[in-house]
């Protein structure tokens, strides 16, 4: 009975770029050629090759699935932005990069104003629509090198990577105006929302906890002023 494999099929499977030409590989090829000439070992070799191909496919599929699950674990389900876990990881990696390459950037902490009253007046479905709209707007407003996240509740964050302070402040103000200009509809209701924002700069010597605390303080100062005092706190 034939095995579906010619005498040279098994050896040719190993006669490609995966197996560079060197003495050890050549001896391996010769052993394979000898195995191909024996009907019994040829059949076993054919089965082994098929199993190896199947195993490789399963490994590729499993790796892709793991990466998909990791992405989901770092994504906010409601807005599609990074969640707190994902943003913490991004922030940590960028601070390490800043230390290594002497980079600098800014962290923006954003909190929606009177969001609880939206939930109380229009319901949580409307509140979710507001969060989605804000998340979508922030996602559209950042550069490809920046990151946007929903940290939880009505709190959002932006990481301006390798950003000029003046330009980042201008972009932050534009974001606040853009949020205020959003027209959000839910069940015949037209809802508007405003936000408070605090900025904190970072460099290679910045501690992550200190960066978040400074941005948080700046955001609450802006909130207390009624949105008239968006502040930037600098490192050091």
What is the topological layout?
Blueprint: H1 9-13, H2 23-37, H3 39-73, H4 84-101, E1 105-112, H5 115-122, H6 124-141, E2 147-152, E3 155-160, H7 165-180, E4 184-186, E5 189-191, E6 195-202, H8 208-224, E7 231-233
Parallel strand pairs: 6-7
Antiparallel strand pairs: 1-3, 1-6, 2-3, 4-5
Fill in the keyword field for this structure:
single chain, alpha+beta, Alpha-Beta Plaits, 5-stranded mixed beta sheet, 56% helix
Summarize the structure.
This protein has 236 residues and is of the alpha+beta class. It is 56% helix and 16% strand.
CATH superfamily of the largest domain: Reverse transcriptase/Diguanylate cyclase domain
Report the helical percentage. Answer: 55-70%
Structural class per helix/strand content?
alpha+beta
Strand content: 15-25%
Number of strands: 7
Largest sheet: 5 strands, mixed
- pLDDT averaged residue by residue: 84
Strand order in space, largest sheet: 2-3-1-6-7
Distance from N terminus to C terminus (CA atoms, Å) equals: 80 Å
Report the uncertain regions: 1-14
Tally of distinct domains: 2
Per CATH, the class of the largest domain reads Alpha Beta
CATH architecture of the largest domain: 2-Layer Sandwich
> What is the CATH topology classification name of the largest domain?
Alpha-Beta Plaits
Radius of gyration: 28 Å
Order of helices and strands: HHHHEHHEEHEEEHE
Q: What sort of overall outline do the alpha carbons produce when their principal axes are compared?
A: elongated
User: How many separate helices?
Assistant: 8
């Amino acid at each position: 009975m034939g095995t579906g494999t010619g005498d040279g099929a098994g050896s040719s499977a190993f006669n490609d770029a995966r197996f560079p030409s060197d003495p050890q590989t050549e001896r391996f090829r010769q052993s394979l050629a000898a195995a191909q000439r024996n009907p019994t070992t040829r059949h076993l070799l054919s089965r082994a090759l098929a199993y190896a191909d199947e195993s490789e496919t399963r490994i590729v599929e499993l790796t892709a699935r793991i990466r998909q699950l990791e992405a989901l674990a770092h994504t906010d389900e409601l807005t599609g932005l990074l969640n707190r876990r994902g943003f913490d990881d991004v922030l940590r990696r960028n601070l390490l990069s800043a230390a290594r390459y002497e980079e600098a950037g800014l962290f923006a902490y954003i909190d929606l104003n009177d969001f609880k009253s939206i939930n109380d007046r229009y319901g949580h479905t409307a509140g979710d629509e507001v969060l989605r709209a804000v998340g979508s707007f922030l996602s559209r407003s950042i550069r490809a090198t920046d990151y946007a996240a929903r940290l939880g509740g009505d709190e959002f964050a932006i990481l301006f990577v390798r950003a000029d302070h003046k330009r980042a402040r201008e972009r932050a103000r534009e974001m606040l105006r853009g949020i205020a200009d959003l027209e959000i509809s839910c069940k015949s209701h037209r809802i508007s929302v405003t936000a408070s924002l605090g900025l904190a700069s970072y460099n290679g010597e910045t501690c992550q906890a200190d960066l978040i605390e400074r941005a948080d303080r700046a955001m609450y100062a802006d909130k207390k002023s009624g949105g008239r005092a968006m502040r930037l706190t600098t490192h050091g």
